Amino acid sequence: MKRLLPLALYGLLSVLSAHSGRSEIVDTTLSHTPLEPHLARLLQIAGCTTEISPTNSLNRVQAASLLQDCLQRQGSTSEAIQRLLDELSDELIQQRNKRVNHLDDAVRSLEATAFSPTTQLKGVTTLVIGANAFGGNSAAQRNDIRSSFGATIVGYDEKLILRTSFTGQDLLNVRLRAGNLDSNQNTFGGGGPSQLSELDVAFQQGPNPNKLGINRAWYKFPVGENWTFTVGSRVNQSVMLAMWPSVYPEDSVLDLFTQAGASGAYSSNLGAGGGVMWERGPLSISLNYIAGQGENGSSGSGLFGADAGSSATAQVGYAADQWGIAAALATIQNGFGIIDYASPFTLRSFNQPGITTGTALSGYWQPARKGWGPSISAGWGWNSTRYKNSVNSEGLVSISQSWTVALQWTDWLLNDTSLGLAVGQPIFATALKGGATPDDASFAMEGWLMVQISDSISVTPAVFYLSRPFGADTPRGTSLSQLGTLMKTTVRF
Fold first, then answer.
1. Residue 291 and residue 183 share a domain
2. Both 213 and 239 in a single domain?
3. Sorting pLDDT into bands at 50, 70 and 90, what band is 224?
4. Max CA separation in the chain (angstroms)
5. What is the DSSP string of 342-384?
6. Are 82 and 76 in contact (CB under 8 A)?
7. Which CATH number belongs to the domain containing residue 371 in this structure?
8. Which residues contact 299 (CB under 8 A, 6 or more apart)?
9. Are residues 82 and 140 in the same domain?
10. Distance, CA of 168 to CA of 166 (rounded, Å)
11. Do 12 and 144 belong together in one domain?
12. Which residues contact 273 (CB under 8 A, 6 or more apart)?
């Protein structure tokens, strides 16, 4: 009944405002006149106030306000209240109009300050502080690396994402990014003994730190019920795959563990390109092409040239409720740094003119309930490299492999707390041109604990270990290992 009374009041006010062509513009001079003694008495009888008497200096607007409060408290409409409604109708209309005008002003203010009716702005700011320690049996080698990369560093990564939908089903994504994690100055940016220590959040726009640039620019749209197309001038393949064959990690550390165990097939090539996805139920097929030199107008470069820095990927995937699996095949033009995470020895072979064919088999399983049971993500990659006739390929890598196994506990011990552990081998040479036997294998490991401080802020202490970052370049009879520790603070808005 209490809920019905205000509705009844507003209904009465609407009728009164429209009755006999009455204008909703109320004579405020009349409304602020002193309250008649009989109305003050009615307020007392109705139980709306006990603090006034016929001699009090209460005006009609104030009386109407008391009446509104009384209506919200009372469980029924008495005769006294009904008489007050009849005699104070103008003042009640006046107050209603004030509330409506205030609401209109608030709406206009929100509209004026809103970013865009169709564009959503998101931001992610990550602060990193950490250091590396180097071990091994060669003091000269350790000391040389420590002198260049042994300091405690502070870095950041800033992402601003603009997401626009014109139809509700399409998506235009533009990401601005800035940072100061330079690969030439610290290991977290991919410097040091190898690129394997590069963090997922490591970024710097060109040679200059703290420079903001467009890092992503692509448009995705559906065609029919089963097809989705993506085109972009700054696009990577992860957004052009109908499914990603891994649920690790929730909070990334080393970037090599974000590539589903196959850094060849799932490379981080970035450039102009496009892709198509077909989905029906849990089954999907994805095809995409990226030219890292698509903006280069020199002969042989561009979108489809022999020096386009291109990669083409095909994937077949199956994603059920708790598990998924995918197989991928990719062709990559060598010499453009498309494959990031391999031993230094293997990367030198990938920099020679030629083609690398990468295959991948990756999948995951996750429990139905969060808590003590971890999700499991695993992936294996196999790569074959052939070189142009002009290259003396003797001793270069012909076959290389990689693999990863990763566990992740979500809501571990506490809600919004996640734990992750991963181990694997970054791409390493398993066969060489000419038949020589490589000694290139190394192991990578990481562990992290992500604690959600609030809806927007998380803190992630992490540690990683590289058993042999030099790979086959490790001098005979020597050893070198790398241990990294860091703290990430991430703010999302």
1. yes
2. yes
3. very high
4. 112
5. B-HHHHHHHTSSEEEEEEEEEEEE--SS-SSSPEEEEEEEEEE
6. no
7. 2.40.160.10
8. 305
9. no
10. 6
11. no
12. 231, 232, 235, 240, 288, 289, 290, 291, 294
Q: Is residue 474 domain-shared with residue 401, that is, in the same domain?
A: yes
The pair of three-digit structure tokens given for residue 24, joined into one six-digit string:
């909703």
Same domain, 243 and 98: no
Residue 27 lies in domain: 4-113
In angstroms, rounded to a whole number, what is the distance separating the alpha carbons of residues 83 and 38? 11
User: Is the domain of 190 the same as that of 270?
Assistant: yes
**Domain finish residue from 65, 90, 113:** 113
Q: What tokens does 3 get?
A: 């809920």
**Secondary structure (H, E, C), 125-174:** EEEEEEEEEEECCCHHHHHHHHHHHCCCEEEEEEEEEEEECCCCCCEEEE
* Rounded Cα gap, residues 256 and 179, in angstroms: 19
Structural domains in the chain (count)? 2
Asked if 162 and 121 count as a contact pair (C-beta separation under 8 A), the reply is yes
354, 338 contact by CB (below 8 A):
no
Claim to verify: residue 463 and residue 479 sit in the same structural domain: yes
- At 6-22, the pLDDT tens digits run 434 344 334 334 433 33
Report residue 403 as tokens.
Answer: 């693999």
CA distance to 218, 270, 418, per residue, from 250 (Å): 24, 22, 8
Instruction: Identify residue 348 by its one-letter amino acid code.
Output: R
Give pairs for 41-44: CB < 8 Å, separation 24+: 42/80, 42/83, 42/84, 43/67, 43/70, 43/84
pLDDT in tens, 336-391: 999 989 999 999 999 999 999 999 999 999 998 887 889 999 999 999 999 999 99
Q: Which helix (H) or strand (E) holds 409?
A: strand 397-410
- What single letter denotes the amino acid at residue 372? W
Buried b (16+ CB within 10 A) or exposed e, 378-397: bbbbbbebebeeeeebeebb
Task: Please choose, from the candidates 430, 410, 429, the residue with its C-alpha nearest in 3D space to the C-alpha of residue 420.
Answer: 410
